């Protein structure tokens, strides 16, 4: 519900989902944040005309992987697109549409990346992005020789994904096994890679505003603050 101009961030990303052609949208919320559901259902009349919203409750902050497992029944075995409201984007073509064809080829998991001078988390924590072509990168376990000889990467992952039902299946397997802390998407991707499933990063054409940072939030205000989401 962080305000960006006269609208909260969640409204901006739902507008982006609608612009990408999605009509069935599930919003995962904390039970202490029922104001999100109230706002979207009572104060955004345009939404009810353009999409169907469901609300899923995550009782504890157990990670994005756990949040997506909650959407298993909503997904009904079909691929799902994921948008995280921490990242707002300016684009000519919506990020999810830029991922669509790549997902169709690999059929497993695709996430968006943008150029960034600061290393994104897909380039840390044991990951290596192996370039396939100008836009596509396979996510792999980083080899020791890569650590010794690699240059600092310039790609950062952003909160836009298309995921097959395999992601939820692997997530459930990990959730039921002993583990510590939150179940995040990276942990599930690691399990998928170990089992031979392709996880692909796609460099998209978009400008990203990370509203979780001190610089990104005021920059988003300057870019979006005088506009309204388009449904």
Describe this structure in words.
The structure is a single chain. This protein is α+β, with helices and mostly antiparallel strands and 231 residues long. The chain has a single domain, classed as Spore Coat Polysaccharide Biosynthesis Protein SpsA, Chain A. The protein is built from 10 helices and 12 strands. The protein has helices at 9-19, 34-42, 45-50, 64-69, 72-75, 95-106, 144-149, 165-176, 185-194, 216-224; strands at 3-4, 7-8, 24-29, 52-57, 80-83, 87-90, 109-115, 127-131, 136-141, 155-163, 199-203, 207-210. The strands form 4 sheets. The chain has a 6-stranded mixed β-sheet. Strands 1-2 form a two-stranded antiparallel sheet. The longest helix is centred in the middle third of the chain and has 12 residues, at 95-106. The protein starts with a strand and ends in a 7-residue tail after the last helix.
Give me a quick take on this structure:
With 231 residues, this protein is α+β, with helices and mostly antiparallel strands. Helix content is 37%, strand content 26%. The protein has helices at 9-19, 34-42, 45-50, 64-69, 72-75, 95-106, 144-149, 165-176, 185-194, 216-224, and strands at 3-4, 7-8, 24-29, 52-57, 80-83, 87-90, 109-115, 127-131, 136-141, 155-163, 199-203, 207-210.
């Amino acid at each position: 519900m962080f305000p960006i101009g006269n609208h909260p961030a969640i409204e901006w990303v739902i507008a982006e989902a609608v612009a990408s052609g999605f009509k069935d949208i599930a919003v995962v919320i904390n039970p202490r944040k029922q104001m999100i559901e109230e706002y979207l259902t009572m104060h955004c009349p345009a939404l009810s005309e353009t999409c169907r919203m469901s609300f899923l409750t995550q009782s504890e902050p157990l990670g994005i992987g756990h949040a997506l497992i909650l959407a298993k029944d909503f997904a009904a075995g079909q691929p799902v697109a994921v948008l995280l409201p921490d990242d707002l984007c300016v684009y000519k073509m919506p990020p999810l549409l830029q991922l669509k064809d790549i997902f169709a080829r690999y059929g497993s998991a695709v996430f968006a990346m943008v150029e960034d001078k600061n290393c994104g988390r897909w380039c840390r924590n044991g990951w290596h992005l192996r370039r396939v072509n100008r836009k596509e990168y396979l996510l792999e376990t980083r080899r020791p020789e890569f650590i010794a000889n690699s240059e600092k990467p310039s790609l950062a992952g952003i909160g836009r994904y298309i995921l097959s039902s395999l992601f939820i299946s692997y997530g459930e397997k990990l959730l039921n096994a002993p583990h510590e802390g939150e179940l995040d998407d990276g942990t599930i991707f690691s399990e998928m890679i170990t089992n031979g499933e392709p996880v692909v990063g796609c460099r998209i054409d978009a400008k990203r505003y990370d509203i979780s940072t001190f610089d990104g939030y005021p920059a988003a205000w300057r870019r979006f603050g005088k506009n309204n989401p388009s449904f």
